[in-house]
Amino acid sequence: MAKIIDGKAIAKKLRAVVKAQTEQLKQKGVIPGLVVILIGNDPASEIYVRNKERAAEKVGVNARTIKYPASATEAEVLAKIEALNQDEQVDAILVQSPMPAQFNSEVIQAAISPAKDVDGFHPLNIGKLFANRSGYYPVANTPRGIMTMLKHEGVALAGKNILVVGRSILVGRPMFALLERANATVTLAHRYTPIDTLKLLAQQADVVIVATGVVNLIQGSDLKAGAVVIDVGINRLADGKLVGDVDFSSASQVASAITPVPGGVGPMTIATLLQTTVELAGQHHDIEMEQAWQNI
Ligand SMILES: NC(=O)C1=CN([C@@H]2O[C@H](COP(=O)(O)OP(=O)(O)OC[C@H]3O[C@@H](n4cnc5c(N)ncnc54)[C@H](OP(=O)(O)O)[C@@H]3O)[C@@H](O)[C@H]2O)C=CC1
Ligand SMILES: Nc1nc(=O)c2c([nH]1)NC[C@@H]1CN(c3ccc(C(=O)N[C@@H](CCC(=O)O)C(=O)O)cc3)C=[N+]21
Ligand SMILES: [Mg+2]
């Protein structure tokens, strides 16, 4: 039986470090500010917004959500982003994805100031990540949270064979870049990867990270014995149950460690969002911040 990686518990530790950083900032008169823009209704986004508001309150981040109907125009959201870029109380801006069809997500992502880009979606920040640049810049919170989790669990990455399934700007692509930076050999699979190839790649992987939104895409029989499995998927079944992209019951028989859904990657995404928000606030006020993950 695999060890179940307790994302909730690790997120709690990370939040405690972030809370200490927030208090440090508050002594200098700085309250970190996060604004989330939610356009229309995506079920995974609604879970995210709800949990984020609770967590922000716990660590002392000033978070608010601006909601637009699915019929909102790109121009009105761009005007709001421009105002938030200028607002000194706001350190971090996030626009939930997916956006309704009338939105060009590339335009929205480039409109957010790179210094307030808490998702790490701006082309400048993406470019730095893929070029492996030094210095501080925001990186997408889900893959960054997964790196924190792997470090916490003592999973070695250098020289390992790692499969990432899914290539979105939110998860798969930045995950690939962070793992490559950690000296792993990384394969990025996607919709055009034939299923037989996917299964062969999974069989050879020391770590498998799945972020597709496809229920049961990976099963125990696809895995190498002792593999580490990170399940990013958030899927709501007809009966209301939340499941990932991995068949947990069969995979946990073969893996050495596995993240559950719920209680795995999701809580880490939220804690890391707050971590990045506090770091951006520190940057804006020239206050030196420790790297929170080094302390957990
Ligand atoms: N737990 C958390 O914190 C978070 C969870 N999520 C969840 O993770 C999942 C993925 O999110 P996101 O990356 O935004 O989703 P997207 O829909 O943006 O991307 C999905 C990716 O999966 C690939 N894919 C789809 N079907 C298959 C398949 N059959 N075989 C292989 N690859 C496939 C797609 O390939 P192609 O590019 O070719 O279309 C695409 O690259 C969702 O369930 C989402 O709700 C997302 C963010 C955070
Ligand atoms: N710009 C942008 N950035 C994102 O990071 C982003 C996004 N858009 N769009 C939607 C996805 C999805 N996402 C989740 C984060 C946490 C949970 C989460 O808290 N999950 C809990 C759920 C617990 C529950 O409430 O049942 C868990 O897995 O344990 C879920 C989903 C972030 N996303
Ligand atoms: Mg998505």
TrEMBL record:
Gene Ontology CC terms: cytosol
UniProt-listed PROSITE patterns: THF_DHG_CYH_2
Superkingdom classification of source: Bacteria
Biological process, per Gene Ontology: L-histidine biosynthetic process; methionine biosynthetic process; purine nucleotide biosynthetic process; tetrahydrofolate interconversion
Residues covered by the Tetrahydrofolate dehydrogenase/cyclohydrolase catalytic domain: 5-119
Binding residues for NADP(+): G166, R167, S168, I234
Pathway info: One-carbon metabolism; tetrahydrofolate interconversion
UniProt catalytic activity: (6R)-5,10-methylene-5,6,7,8-tetrahydrofolate + NADP(+) = (6R)-5,10-methenyltetrahydrofolate + NADPH; (6R)-5,10-methenyltetrahydrofolate + H2O = (6R)-10-formyltetrahydrofolate + H(+)
EC number(s) stated in the UniProt entry for this protein: 1.5.1.5, 3.5.4.9
Domain Tetrahydrofolate dehydrogenase/cyclohydrolase NAD(P)-binding: 141-283
GO function term, MF aspect, one: methenyltetrahydrofolate cyclohydrolase activity
Keywords: Amino-acid biosynthesis, Histidine biosynthesis, Hydrolase, Methionine biosynthesis, Multifunctional enzyme, NADP, One-carbon metabolism, Oxidoreductase, Purine biosynthesis
Family: Belongs to the tetrahydrofolate dehydrogenase/cyclohydrolase family.
Subunit-level organization: Homodimer.
Chain's role: Catalyzes the oxidation of 5,10-methylenetetrahydrofolate to 5,10-methenyltetrahydrofolate and then the hydrolysis of 5,10-methenyltetrahydrofolate to 10-formyltetrahydrofolate.
Protein name as it appears in the record: Bifunctional protein FolD
Organism, as annotated: Weissella oryzae (strain DSM 25784 / JCM 18191 / LMG 30913 / SG25)
Name of the coding gene: folD
